[in-house]
Amino acid sequence: MAHPIWVAVTGDEMRAMDSSAVGNEADARLLIEAVKSKSAIQSALDSRLLVPSSERLTLIPHKEFCNDIPVIDISGLLDDGRRGETIAAVVNAAANWGIFQVVNHGIPDLVLENLMTVVKDFFSMPEEEKQLIAKDHENGRLQGYVPFSQLFQKQAAWSNQIEYILQPHHLVGPEDTWPARPAGFRQAIEEYCNEFHSVLAKILELLLSSCLKTSGTRKSSELLDGNQLQVFRASYYDTCPQPEMVMGLRSHVDSSLITAIVQDDTGGLQVEKDGQWYGVAPTPGAVVILLGSVLQVLTNDMLKAVEHRVVVNGESRRMSVTTGINPSSNTIVAPAQELIDELHPPHYLPCEYKEFRITNFEAGVLNSLDALDQYRIKDQVPSLHHRTLFPEDIEEHNPTFYHVGDGRLLDLQSFIREGIVAS
């Protein structure tokens, strides 16, 4: 397959390109030459199409891996003799890294093999055929194929994608949004996502139980009420002639509870910890688990969403599949009441998940950390004794309070009553 076009051009020139140009070797060579000129590089940097020099300084090779990122055998959850040890391993990995890999998770090898095979076969098809199911927001097609030119323009991402909503059922796209080829594509995706959803739900329950110091079953059930949002995304990262100048996916955090990634053996997924970047080693049969920003809000910063990125290379193409669990659109995203008291005020304002997700989407992958900060409470309340000043705003069973602009201190239910948060 030909290289995707190296787009070291101005924004206007980029918008003039269409997907038919991708794979044109002659144009690619011309653009690769153009990027060698200082003016072309600066123009691209100004348009945020290339990786800034400050971020390039943190790049590590796609094959440089960290052996300290935990790989956990979660079959121990089914063994009374190993259950406690396994739970501790999951909780510690989440708290210390925000990422871990799980093996012996109960998903048959054949399901994972079929998943990666149909994804590879799809991205190997001619561009013209993939374009038949391309996303088209103007015409209401919100699911399907996302071509390289579109991703590079919007996110500075050196990749192609295909994505679908699998839950809730009323948001699942019609049959004509799915590819006719390869055979069995939809079945393989749905089988994997259905199988792994229960694994993700169990991991979420364990993490909530640890943070809330009570059974996480009820809280997990509230979040996963059958209307939760589940999105599937497959990404294809072609080889790049100058991989140090672009990213497969720029650094960001996911607006999810938890995210699961199946990656091939190429390498390129990297995570940030304490100011350093580490490569996540491809592990046969493993699924990578990442903590998202909704879980960070829910646990009031006890658990942190992990910042991650994908680097590309000039030697090997890379594929990965991402899914996860998110609350339903109308769920109020806020610190859990069990974690709030006089010494531990809430760190975030409440909002509906659909607003939270839109804020993250509008900020874009380049600013996902800034999107989370939009809900962070800047001035913490040192003590809740002030609540006696506002008895009409207080409900004794809900000790979670937030400042509002007129100086009052409101609980979550008051926010809802006053229309600040929709019920």
From TrEMBL:
SUPFAM superfamilies: Clavaminate synthase-like. It comes from the Eukaryota. Signal peptide: none annotated. It holds the Pfam family 2OG-FeII_Oxy. GO terms for molecular function: metal ion binding; oxidoreductase activity. Residues 225-327 form the Fe2OG dioxygenase domain. Keywords: Iron, Metal-binding, Oxidoreductase. InterPro entries: DIOX_N (IPR026992), IPNS-like_FE2OG_OXY (IPR044861), IPNS-like_sf (IPR027443), Oxoglu/Fe-dep_dioxygenase_dom (IPR005123), Plant_2OG-oxidoreductases (IPR050295). Belongs to the iron/ascorbate-dependent oxidoreductase family. This is Fe2OG dioxygenase domain-containing protein. It comes from Ceratodon purpureus.
